[in-house]
Design brief:
Elements: H1 2-13, H2 41-55
Length: 57
């Protein structure tokens, strides 16, 4: 009886909502995650200015 309860409990822990729709089939070199949202022009300009500051010795 105790073993059966333990098995059920272990089985139910794998059914958490946070674990649903996660990728379990992996292909090397292939990204299967969600697509990134595009950055705004303002954010791109900010990143470019930071990169330019870091290039200067």
């Amino acid at each position: 009886m105790l073993v059966a309860c333990a098995a059920i409990l272990i089985g139910l822990t794998g059914c958490r909502e946070s674990e649903q729709d996660r990728i379990i089939d992996f292909d090397p070199g292939v990204y299967k995650g969600k697509k990134d949202t595009p950055l705004s022009q303002e954010t791109l300009d900010e990143l470019r200015s930071r990169a330019a500051i870091q290039e200067t010795p």
